[in-house]
């Protein structure tokens, strides 16, 4: 990261501290745009509902190009391409390349990895993407394929992930393997940690929730019923793995947050930096809200800058920062990273003065 990038992020989080402690109405413009290129997907995951319907009326290629130009004018620091599964859009690669062409310096891709074949990865890298999250919901085909609803998904995704990791080492990419903790795979936490260490890839733990858009289904609600004794047993094993070798694994503070998630979805003592950092642009042009609160504006009706600076957006995001919300746990890691006390807790854990269970 350049000095300029570091300074800009420091300024952003410094303003968040002022917003939290001194000036709650301070407007902090987002730095990252989360672009949901499509709500549709090529898998049938039990932890998600996007595949249960076929979303129509999504933004056209030219409409997305206009969005990207507006984001550059807004001085957005980074653009995340996500979905659904973004790579099922025929114009996904062209939109990534266009983002780089018009001046977006940092590009990220969230993917289930099915379509991230070596030729496609070559095009993605040529477009300028240098950061990736690849979803793997089990350390074995038995667990992953059952959750993802497709036989052979584990073999395909991990094969493509291994190739991505090889390119990471050559090009200095940022790669994470995302595992969503839920009822059907909580016992696999030690196994997914071992897989991350075998692959040499950072492990990120998503937390299942039925509060966010695309996830509000009865099946997902069932996955949120994670028994405390099973979670504690899995975390105890994972902690033993981490004490032996913590490379590639989540921080102690993140694992501690995970333990509390299923009892206290909001955890209001931790302000939501995620709601301030990210600007959501949905597949049909809706803008605003957050993961669990639906947007009310649209790029098809108003420019993005006008939406972001409007009193309604500012008031909404002040409430979301205070977690006056339904809760979700999305990107809790970011919310923890700007709290100095979490690094002290991590250090105490490394010295054996704290434990997960």
Automatic annotation (TrEMBL):
Domain Radical SAM core: 27-259
Top-level taxon in the UniProt lineage: Bacteria
GO molecular function: catalytic activity; iron-sulfur cluster binding; metal ion binding
Keywords from the named record: Iron, Iron-sulfur, Metal-binding, S-adenosyl-L-methionine
Keyword Iron: yes
Keyword Thylakoid: no
InterPro entries registered for this protein in UniProt: Aldolase_TIM, Radical_SAM_PqqE_MftC-like, rSAM, rSAM_sf
Gene3D superfamilies tied to this protein: Aldolase class I (3.20.20.70)
Pfam family, one: Radical_SAM
Annotated protein name in UniProt: Radical SAM superfamily enzyme, MoaA/NifB/PqqE/SkfB family
Organism: Micromonospora humi
Taxonomic lineage from the root: Bacteria, Bacillati, Actinomycetota, Actinomycetes, Micromonosporales
């Amino acid at each position: 990261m350049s000095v300029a990038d570091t300074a800009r992020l420091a300024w952003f989080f410094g303003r968040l501290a002022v917003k939290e402690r001194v000036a709650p109405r301070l407007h902090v413009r987002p730095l990252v745009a989360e672009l949901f290129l499509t709500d549709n997907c090529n898998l049938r995951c039990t932890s998600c509902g996007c595949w249960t319907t076929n979303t129509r009326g999504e933004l056209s290629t030219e409409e997305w190009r206009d969005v990207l130009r507006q984001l550059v004018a807004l001085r957005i620091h980074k653009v995340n391409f996500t979905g659904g599964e973004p790579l099922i859009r025929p114009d996904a690669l062209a939109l990534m390349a266009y983002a780089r062409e018009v001046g977006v310096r940092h590009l990220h891709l969230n993917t289930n990895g099915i379509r991230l074949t070596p030729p496609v990865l070559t095009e993605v890298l040529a477009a300028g993407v240098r950061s990736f999250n690849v979803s793997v919901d089990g350390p074995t085909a038995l667990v992953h394929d059952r959750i993802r609803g497709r036989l052979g998904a584990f073999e395909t995704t991990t094969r493509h992930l291994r190739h991505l990791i090889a390119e990471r080492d050559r090009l200095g990419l940022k790669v994470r393997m995302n595992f969503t903790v839920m009822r059907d795979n909580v016992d696999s936490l030690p196994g997914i940690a071992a897989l991350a260490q075998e692959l040499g890839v950072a492990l990120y733990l998503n937390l299942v929730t039925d509060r966010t858009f695309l996830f509000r289904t009865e099946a997902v609600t069932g996955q949120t019923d994670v028994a405390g004794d099973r979670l504690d047993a899995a975390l105890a094993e994972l902690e033993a793995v981490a004490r032996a070798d913590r490379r590639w694994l989540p921080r102690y503070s993140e694992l501690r947050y995970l333990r509390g998630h299923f009892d206290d979805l909001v955890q209001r003592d931790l302000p939501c930096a995620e709601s301030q950092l990210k600007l959501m642009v949905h597949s049909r042009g809706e803008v605003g809200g957050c993961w669990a609160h639906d947007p009310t504006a649209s790029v098809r009706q108003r420019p993005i800058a006008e939406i972001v600076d409007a009193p309604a957006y500012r008031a909404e995001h002040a409430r979301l920062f205070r977690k006056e919300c339904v809760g979700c746990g999305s990107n809790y890691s970011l919310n923890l990273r700007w709290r100095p006390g979490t690094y002290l807790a991590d250090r105490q854990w490394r010295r054996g003065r704290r434990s997960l269970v």
